[in-house]
Amino acid sequence: MGQMHRVTSEYDYLSQMVPHHQDAIAAARQLQRSSRPEMRQLGQSIVTTQTAEVARMKGWLRQWYPQSPAPSPSGTTMPDLSGLSGNQLDKAFLQHMIPHHMMAIMMSQQLLVHGEALHPQVADFARKVRDDQRAEVATMRRYLVQWFGEQSMPCIPHMPGMTPEPQMPDMTPGPHMSDMTPEPHMTDMTPEPHLSDMTPTTDTS
Are 90 and 36 in contact (CB under 8 A)? Predict the structure, then answer.
């Protein structure tokens, strides 16, 4: 999955998040070929939401940081899914998009924790990215259990300068989230429903 360097400024956050979103959009478009309506809906939601967010972030970068370099990918964070179909497509997407989303959650949380957002619009945006993608992670984890019987959490990307949230089970693979501190007054980020309370269903595709 790779590693993203620590978010050090508002510009840094925006310039990293644009290509990160673009990776997710490209992968989510592949879900149009999924046989599962839930996956097609998830893919369309990601494409729609993150396309609008990319446009918003690019607008802020042009407005506030016109002299700074335009965002550019430092390396893809999602695999090429174009050759996959059926269960292989769905499973690969879920296994890779969960840690991809976690990276965006950690980047957003880091911006907020360290007070790097210079504009309230960006702070609000980071909270929305964090909360929306947290909800999607819970959904994707549920799909992995229901369809593929996977109880373990896919590998979370390494990002220096972060420690896990309190009450955040199954999201702490050793040093990968070291030094991440919660935003003041942030509520429990435990995905729901709890996986231990779920009964996997039979794949009907």
Answer: yes
Bridge partners for 158 per DSSP: 3
pLDDT, one tens digit per residue, over 162-177 is 433 333 333 333 333 3
Cα–Cα dist 179/181, whole Å: 6
CA distance 169 to 167: 6
The DSSP annotation for 146-198 comes to: HHH---SPPPPPB-SS--PPTT-TT---GGGGTT--PPTTPPP---SS-GGG-
Question: What is the CA angle 6-9-14, rounded to 5?
Answer: 90
**DSSP letter assigned to residue 9:** S
Contact criterion met (CB below 8 Å) for 165 and 144 = no
pTM as predicted:
0.75
